[in-house]
Amino acid sequence: MPGKVAELTPKEVEHWKTLEWIPDGDQAGIKRGKHWDLMWWQLWPRQRKAAEALGYSESSWNENQWLLPRRAGWWDLDATMRRHLEDLGETEELWDGWTKPEPISGQSEEVVAQMNASGESRLWSQLSRKQQQAATALGLTPSTWNMEEMADVSEVIAQLFPPGFEGCVTQGCDEESFETAKDLALSHPLVYASFGCHPKAAWSYNEDFEASMLAYMDACGEKVVAFGEFGLDFSHPFFGPNEENRERQREVFVRQLEVAIGRDMPLVIHSREAESDTFRIMCATVPRDWKVHLHSYRGSIPHMKEMLAEFHQMYIGMPGILTMNDHHAQELVRQCPLERMLVETDAPYLPVEGHWLSHPGLIPTIMASVATLKGVEMHHVSTVLRENARTVYGF
């Protein structure tokens, strides 16, 4: 699949518009109901009863746990569940829709469409006949659309990745992504993996979760090159300030640091709106010469410098948004020493300017932007960043 809309034929563009992966000018995003963002005490008594009937307790609701079917259409749910969901404010349109992300500064329509597409959640059975015909014309089948069948990884790499590709890392960061990460790592000699528990999934971490995670690591053997991503994330507008949620994340963070260091593994750290806690816990737990990738960094410049000064083999991950009109991301690049930097896509979640599909094959595009921002030659940037990646990940 081409990375730019300009590379598509007119007929392919029409098919992707039919599937709503490319904006058509008239299409407005469907917004999910705000009821999912409310705290327990903000629900009406009838809504609390409906939530309880669906299996929620006050703590599981406030921790944003998702206890409902993830890939079932509205009419796949039984009548009782639909009634309870309606009491909570859900509708067929909302349930079968999805939230299209709001544009941030510098985002083109193509980038917004790519981010929306990466969150595709409709089953084949939920597509209209016209949409199914468009998908079929593009070579998709019901099993590939429903993500029940993995594409040929070698073919995708040959099609999308540039010559000289030497490896990439896929992450399993919750129970749902472990199996896919393992399959990807074992499907190609240059695809590696890391495993951990994302802070937003900290509520699910227990002995069984840990045993499962370690079993996936063992199954991948030498293809596992790091532990993560894991860390702290207090960014949610409602759950972020909740001290019970924060404390749970801290506990899970400390436990995973112990496991990772016990296994002598590099760390892939996720830290969002939790700078002081991340720094404090790492200073108390992590040796100063440990290999650390501070993943897709979007924090403050003072915190970045503090981390670099304290941890001698910490590298700051700069995502593809630095290619866009994002002044903060670009200033982080200017302020971070090239010798302490990594570049990454966090595909498919973070966009790269000019591309509607984010993937690791776009790393040279990100490197080129780093070279421009730093005012140095591309060859020098690629050489240094390649060596940084080898230092952290070992391949």
Structure description:
By secondary structure, this protein is an alpha/beta fold. The protein folds into 3 domains: 5-29 and 100-145, no CATH class; 34-96, no CATH class; 153-393, Metal-dependent hydrolases (TIM Barrel), CATH 3.20.20. 43% of the residues lie in helices and 10% in strands. The chain is built from 17 helices and 7 strands. Strands 1-2-3-4-5-6-7 form a 7-stranded parallel β-sheet, with helices on both faces. α2 runs antiparallel to α4. It is globular. The two termini are 28 Å apart. Mean pLDDT is 86; it is low at 26-32, 98-108 and 110-116.
Summarize the structure.
The chain contains 17 helices and 7 strands.
What is the tally of beta strands?
A: 7
Helix count equals: 17
CATH superfamily of the largest domain: Metal-dependent hydrolases
CATH class of the largest domain: Alpha Beta
Structural class: alpha/beta
Provide the CATH architecture of the largest domain: Alpha-Beta Barrel
Number of domains: 3
What is the share of helical residues? 40-55%
- What is the strand arrangement across the widest sheet? 1-2-3-4-5-6-7
Report low-confidence residues grouped into runs of 5 or more.
Answer: 26-32, 98-108, 110-116
| SSE string | HHHHHHHHHEHEHEHEHEHEHEHH
Indicate the overall shape: globular
Main β-sheet description: 7 strands, parallel
Keywords:
395 residues; alpha/beta; TIM Barrel; 3 domains; seven-stranded parallel beta sheet; 17 helices; 7 strands; 43% helix
